[in-house]
Amino acid sequence: MAPDAGGPRSARNAAATRRRILDAATEEFSALGLSGARIARIADGAGANQRMIYAYFGNKDGLFDAVLEHNILLVQSAVPFDAADLPGYAQRVFDFYRANPHLVRLELWQTLERPDSMRSSPLIRSALAHKAAALEQAQAAGLVSAVLPAAELLDHILTLAHGHPMNAGDAASWTDGQRGALAAGVAALTGQPPGGAPPPATVPPRHPR
Hints:
Layout: H1 8-36, H2 39-46, H3 50-57, H4 60-78, H5 86-99, H6 101-113, H7 117-120, H8 122-140, H9 150-162, H10 165-168, H11 176-190
Helix pairs in contact: 1-2, 1-4, 1-6, 3-4, 5-9, 5-11, 8-9, 9-11
């Protein structure tokens, strides 16, 4: 159970501590995975004690799940979903992960070590459901091919945006050629034009690599 806030100032301090823990844990888990990460190193990186980590998150698995949820929702808030331009949306996801390769590594560790955690998060499930509903509406309006069901189409788009598993763990090396091929692939799936979004000059990373 999380510590009692005890007033506005305590609540702000608790929120700041929780955020520092999440940031330090993101770096640790993305580098070493769930099995290799150490709570002691996370506590040191966050400037917190281990007791606080267990108070907020219960155990290491709970912390990993919280880190995953925090970062997936960060991506989703940074890259708004656009059912009218799915090739461009996929490219913007690509751009975000290319600028934040540690998040790709985090999701690869999740696939290996906690494969059910992403779908078990109510917030992530809700965000994916909203995207699938927007896709269904776009399909009904004739803006997107209805060859695939909306939820399955969304899975394919996001999988393409993450790249081939052979180089997914090195997102910083993803090329503009791969970015263009991504737009073409999503265009073929959706029936939308492959123009996509122009590459950004820079996409600032959201967390140290």
